[in-house]
Write a structure and sequence with these properties.
The chain is built from two helices and eleven strands, in the order βββββαβββββαβ. It is an alpha+beta fold and 178 residues long. It folds into two domains: 32 residues, no CATH class; 129 residues, Alpha-D-Glucose-1,6-Bisphosphate, Chain A, domain 4.
Length: 178
């Protein structure tokens, strides 16, 4: 079912989450007939081209707290300690584990659950890190959603960001899934 429709546009949600503070998070799987987004949502106006998604994930037997410490700690996914940077609505700039600069805005932060960033260097893509599951069955995920980014860049992201969590959780993982 479409949330909004016109003669040339249909917005269809795949997943919907409502948080206690009233934040609503919607994962979009289809958005138009011609591959462009007419700009009814802030931060996405003017996006052109196909939506490209990478979703590397890593299962681990670590606690949610330890998985969070590993992901935001310096030298793991990013050069700096992200706990000092992740503030909803704030601009950020730091380097990832490959030495690439990432900058943009922190969209939301859920302590011990994850965070979402826009990444200017990836065509203003959304990059979400989540820690999901129950104790003993935790899964750490990086979800990249980019419009108009070359598939080769998305594939490269998927390869690099699948390998890094596997290294961070070495000898502590149950298994991996791509």
């Amino acid at each position: 079912m479409a949330l909004w429709r016109s003669t040339d546009f249909a917005l269809k949600p795949a997943n919907l989450a409502v948080f206690p503070d009233g934040t609503i998070l919607v994962q979009i799987v289809s958005f138009s007939k011609n591959g462009s987004f007419p700009g009814i949502l802030p931060g996405v106006s003017g996006a052109k081209g196909a939506n490209r998604v990478a979703w590397p994930r890593q299962k681990t037997n670590l606690s949610r707290e330890e998985a969070h410490r590993q992901l935001v700690g310096p030298g793991n996914l990013f050069a700096d300690n992200l706990d000092n940077v992740l503030r909803k609505g704030h601009q950020y700039a730091f380097h990832n584990f490959l030495g690439q600069k990432f900058s943009g805005q922190v969209e939301f932060v859920r302590q011990l659950r994850g965070f979402c960033l826009t990444v200017r260097q990836l065509n203003d893509a959304l990059l979400w890190f989540t820690i999901e599951g129950v104790p003993g069955k935790i899964e750490v995920q990086a979800w990249l959603s980019a419009f108009g980014l070359a598939q080769s860049r998305v594939d490269e992201f998927a390869r690099n960001w699948q390998a890094r969590p596997a290294k961070i959780f070495a000898n502590r993982s149950l298994d991996t899934d791509v």
